[in-house]
Amino acid sequence: xxxxxESGGGLVQxxxxxxxxxxxxGRTFSRYVMGWFRQAPGKERxxxxxxxxxxxxxxxxxxxxxxxxxxxxxxxxxxYLQMNSLKPEDTADYYCAARQGLVVTTQANEYExxxxxxxxxxxx
Length: 124
Prior knowledge:
The chain is mostly beta strands. The protein has no helices and eleven strands. The relative contact order is 0.32.
């Protein structure tokens, strides 16, 4: 069982930056693929980025490639999402998710554990 708690959301002006954190419980954090999703009102939940235990070769959605960066600290059971050059269209609820194993997948229903979400609002 894994419990995930996100933090770091808030209001930021366009062009600004935010860093989200996701703290995970459990002793086997390193065995999980960790991902960041977001969901805007009226839209489907989309995977932004995900990484396996090593943190190497992460997946990025085209919409955030070059602006967002995922990292993980397995010793602290924490994964981060650094968001730069934020745009109003990045406004959404952001969720941390975990799936057991080594394979990064893009489908939300393949992630077993979810955080409660944190809201990010980017003003123009």
